Amino acid sequence: MTQLSAQEMDIPRRILDNLNLAVLLFDRQLNLTYLNPAAEVLLAASARQVRGVNLKDLLSGEHELVRSCLQTLRSGHPFTEREVSLMLANGRHLTADCTVTPLQEAHQPSELLMELQRVDRQRRILREENLLAQHQASRALVRGLAHEIKNPLGGLRGAAQLLERELHNEALKEYTGIIIGEADRLQNLLNRMLGPNALPHQRNINIHQVIERVRTLTAAEAPPGVRIVRDYDPSIPEFSADPDQLIQALLNIVRNALQAVGQEGQIILRTRTVRQVTLGHQLHKLSIRIDVIDNGPGIAPDMLENIFFPMVTTRADGTGLGLPIAQALVNQHHGLIECSSQPGKTAFTIFLPLETHHEQQ
Question: Which of 39, 256, 257, 297 is most exposed by smallest CB count within 10 Å?
């Protein structure tokens, strides 16, 4: 019988270590005996921390998954469950497809092999792709409409100016003045709907200088009963960006939060770094995450899917242009804005890649 070399014996371990699929091995008492690096990432814990921990202690509370695993040990039959909702002991929530296979020894299952494939990450990538596609489609539509409106609008304004020169009655000139003023107002509205046209003037910046500028501006506008709380990660390195464009994008979001909380409330400005974030079709090794969280009444579910479209607003005096412009400015930095909302907690999250285009190649 041919003996395997040490290198050949190490091949299965190398394969497991490089899988994106989380692989965990449990003994008959459901104590964890092995997990690969993908499982460490999924559990947000090192192998040293969780090896030997029982499955029920890895999960928060008695979970149906534990009962299913015990049944598999008794029956020897594997099972697969789709989109299992898991609450980990550390408070993290995830959704995963789960396959459990009994490993037989002497006709009795001695160990359980568990494979977990996160599906909430795939959902998030799909949602981001849809968000970017919707944003691009709405911008293309607005640009087309603006082009069609601008030409006759310019003609109306020019005709009103010519008419004004011919009029000697000051009372009649008041009407031409109204026409010219309203034409200018519509022109400004169209320009805002089109969003930023200039390319970012990028230089190395500290993201906290940008956020502090926005905090100072909004703190001056905030009622006395509103608290703006800072929760920064000081280890975030400098990166290349246009500070003016990011200030404008963040200002639009924080002002929305300020209006949401009213006379009393709290707004949290939080920064963190996140690894392996997919924005659109590009995987970024390291990105900045900026959260703007308010404890206002929240956004209605039927509005949440449409808030980044132009002219969509919940306020009677709103134009519905602040969020689309913010999204466009962040998109120019290869980033993305997401939103989640429920009564008492609305979070706008900005993702900005830290690496340059050259470093991504």
Answer: 297
Could you tell me the pTM of the whole model? 0.57
The whole-number pLDDT of residue 124 equals 61
Render pLDDT for 214-225 as a digit per residue (tens, 0 to 9): 999 999 889 999
Query: Cα 225 from chain centroid?
Result: 29
